[in-house]
Amino acid sequence: MSQQPKDAAESLDQAFTRTSPYGSHAEPTYSGALSFLRRRYTKELEGVDVAVIGVPYDLATTNRSGARLGPRAIRAASASLAWCPPYAWDFDPCERLNVIDWGDVYFDSGRPHLVPDQITDAYRKIIASGTVPLTLGGDHFVSYPVLRALHETHGPLALVHFDAHSDTWEDSDGRIDHGTMFFHAAKQGLVDPARSIQVGMRTHNADTHGYQVLDARWLHAHGVDACLAEIRKRVGADKCYVSFDIDFLDPAFAPGTGTPVVGGFSTHDALQLVRGLAGLQIVGMDVVEVAPAYDHSEITAFAAASIAQELLAAHASRFPDRPRAG
Ligand code: MN
Ligand code: MN
To answer: Where are the domains of the chain?
Structure first.
């Protein structure tokens, strides 16, 4: 399904030479401008369906920092995926949807207390244009300012959350911590725990705060299909946000992350789970916690780029009638 670009000039640096926002074209994987999946790098949101946005923030980590370099690593890894659509689907999500790479959110890390609002402000403008954000973290805290912006347009969302950690530990207001933001999100009504589900946990948290929790023992025992049935039952046709912390994967499949926990899942499990989200009404999604300094052979970055690509396809599955633009 890969197509050759119409002229040679388009076969390099598609991030700024492509003439159409649609389609997947071959480009040497080892060179060129590293936008996510070689999508156009632009801040223009007219007609854009999905904006891939980097949030290179990692000041909320509680263990090893380094996720600020996650967006760059995921974009680089995506170069090897960009020449053709993901194989498990019978369509190219980038032919159905106008997907851009918006670049990274700017914030001043020397004024950390201002960062959450800076992130929310940037997303508010993107979401107001009707664009669905696909965020590349950054540590997991970044989901919280994104959810605040989404809530302004969509109201309380269902959350579908893959992680080794619940990230719902109790906290006082205003703290910036990547282990507590889904506690705050529930308390503030950004997400509705009664329609939300957390999958893959292998750390102790006595309080679910109303979320449905399928921990790692449950998922290992019952498997992917049973998990997907639970997700569908919980979320139904409601608007949802899909948040994928890369430490959902076992450290064997994702060593490059700040707070790895053994006993997790394979990349195959993860891809099957994300594929199974097809048809959900996804209004935002993220892949977070990739910390390249602890990675080996880009294992973690490849996993994250692939999961992000499959999320795009799962979202695009809802739009079978979108005319293929030339
Ligand atoms: Mn997390
Ligand atoms: Mn985690």
So the answer is: 51-316
Task: Find the 141 Cα to ligand 2 centroid distance in Å.
Answer: 10
Ligand approaching nearest to the C-alpha of 248: 2
Inform me whether the pLDDT recorded for 6 exceeds 80: no
The answer to whether residue 19 scores a pLDDT higher than 70 is: yes
- How far, in Å, is the centroid of ligand 2 from the Cα of 5? 40
Inform me whether the pLDDT recorded for 243 exceeds 80: yes
Pairwise CA distance, residues 316 & 179, whole Å: 30
pLDDT score of 23 more than 80 = yes
Examine the pLDDT at 187 and tell me if it is beyond 90. Answer: yes
Q: Which of 252, 263, 262 is nearest to 219 (CA)?
A: 263
Please give the share of the chain, as a percent, with pLDDT higher than 90.
93
The CATH fold of domain 51-316:
Arginase; Chain A (3.40.800)
Q: What is the pLDDT of residue 11?
A: 79
- Across the beta sheet with 158-162, the strand order is 40-41, 99-104, 50-55, 132-137, 281-288, 239-245, 158-162, 197-201, 212-215
- 157's tokens: 């969302």
Q: Which neighbouring-strand residues pair with 3?
A: 25
174 CA → ligand 2 middle, Å: 20
211-232 pLDDT per residue, tens:
999 999 999 999 999 999 999 9
Using only C-alpha atoms, the chain has a radius of gyration, in whole angstroms, of 18
In 50-203, where does DSSP find H-type helix? 70-78, 93-96, 115-128, 143-154, 181-187
Task: Please report which confidence band the pLDDT of residue 321 belongs to, taking 50, 70 and 90 as the band edges.
Answer: confident
For residue 154, how far is its CA from the centre of ligand 2 (angstroms)? 26
Phi, psi of 172 (to 5 degrees): -90, 160
Least distant ligand from the CA of 244: 1
d(CA 62, ligand 2 centre) in Å: 11
Distance 43 CA to ligand 2 centre (A): 30
Distance (angstroms) between ligand 1 centre and the Cα of 45 equals: 29
**What's the 32 CA to ligand 1 centre distance in angstroms?**
32
